[in-house]
């Protein structure tokens, strides 16, 4: 379906004419996970003693241990009104907004917990609790029954189905899909035209539109292998890694700051980003990719370069959010381990083990003991992420020092002697100022400046060369089980407090209700999930267990690993996974639409040496992938969501591809990979420094013409070009991005400096051609990969002719005349059109 071009010009697509896409099938599951991880534990620990069936007397007639009770409320009214914070009395109570309504009454919950409740209610207050109150911290788990779940059984090679339309399939993928379609009386639509197909393929494989030369060469190539040659060319492109790394970074919750309550930079995070890009470009076997991210530091390396690469890979475990102002060291350690368990099990296994922190898993056969078996592995691991001790951030860590002879890139320039002298002199002045201050609070605040200055020096060797540092993990020392601890003190006098954490490799106890001050006496041996293995992991006493865990996940006998990755790839190519809940293959997730096809692909993936490129090639060379996006009334009536794959689903470009396409079409794109990032050049410290440099300008710098994957990723402060167009929240594990259609997107395309500059440059290129019709043709080929129709020629000519010549809409440097302004407005209309923004 091609929408009228004049409509795009008239409206600049302020409201996208294609409307919103189908609702995200995984939203309910993700909301339930949020409730289980963030909401239920707090209700249990802080509220149930007075507001549940276990309470001696139900205070205020308010029951908070069931969904019905929390929504009905008590004597004062409804405690929770979904999507309405003002009417939800629970929010007023936990905010301690009034003297007569404060819960808990003896203390106020932390700001991050209050924010979690506000988010929960704003998103609809999803609450899976049914029936009577559930207050015990354990549920009955039947491991043997759980093993019968389809996802917990090893994939078996299915029989290739026979199909009636035997001349239609190209690959076995097509046969599985066609068999399902024929069973429902649906016929697939025709194949997409070559121009549409190449544009789809280019965006899906490298995240960029095809050039004019590439389009014309493909259209005129009548050889039998023209399409396969285009696939191979794109798979070999260095841009392939930049596109597919972004998908994995969504899952890995990649960011360059801690987020949470106090937001501090991760100046070394970029190394992990580049590791992932290189891994996809070099087609690193996925099983090796898994092991390197979980235990690369423990793997044997052939040389220093490989050792450095594998150390950097473990940044996967260090990148998560950090609550740097957490006062309890033990709770902080448990929270870090919890976050690592969550990302490991969702990313690689597609299950939500972290839901078992406070109680046996509500849905899956995962007892709380299994959670703490894994917690022992990650608690025996030292997480190295950097940051500095600064005012309310008291959880700094070391960084990994990479091998000196690995010759890795560094993001900062050498430190001159004069610059070192300047920093040291400044430190002396600040320290003298501290000595002269009498007020302890002022001394404490000023001492933060010393930390910032010291961090600048600590980034360099004594000779001024930048240190080769990285985020990552390493094992703690081995020793007596769960005995030795380390303690730290902070503050003075009555304000002094201490925290401690485990120093050595050790097993972990179960913590009742997940509370750090309620451990059980018995320790749980380090290990993994009973439902997925018949024999426990054998972990030597001196090992954390990370390597053993990584090898167990990466084995072909693990029923989930290959399936989960195959499903992630399918999701990115079709917009919907064979399993729609890509991060939840458990009992609460949805069953696969084509289970035999999923297993067929998973087994082929492993047989092909876990090659992601071969998997993608197999999928995109299928007939199913090459279908047009045309809608058929009969098929729509039977399968409106296209679950059975009778056509290609229409999808908007992701945020990065949309921005990159503007750069590419306008000729502004710098294809060279930058070393480091804007954050890497900021050094350690808080994102918003007192009286210091800010990274705000770098986040939305219109002069940054590198690919979007290299933009700074600051938690809670994404670039506007990404945030407005549904980029992943870097604080969350994101398999499937939501797609929204909101007016702010249209306003961005109308007014943003980045869009205006791209329009100006695209117009400048068109003006090198002679003749208005020739320019219009060139513009359509560059923007859409096709020529303009006669009707579109007429509409474009009318727009260009009617554009005001005496008073341009906006004079800008670089627009030397009205002619340039006219063509810039024309290009901006093309950028804002639905056809440019959507991949068909």
UniProtKB/TrEMBL annotation:
The lineage of its organism: Bacteria, Pseudomonadati, Planctomycetota, Planctomycetia, Pirellulales. It holds the Pfam family PSCyt1. Keywords: Signal. Residues 47-106 form the Cytochrome C Planctomycete-type domain. The keyword Signal applies. InterPro entries: Cyt_c_Planctomycete-type, DUF1549, DUF1553. This is Cytochrome c domain-containing protein. The keyword Signal applies. Residues 1-22 form the signal peptide. Residues 172-382 form the DUF1549 domain.
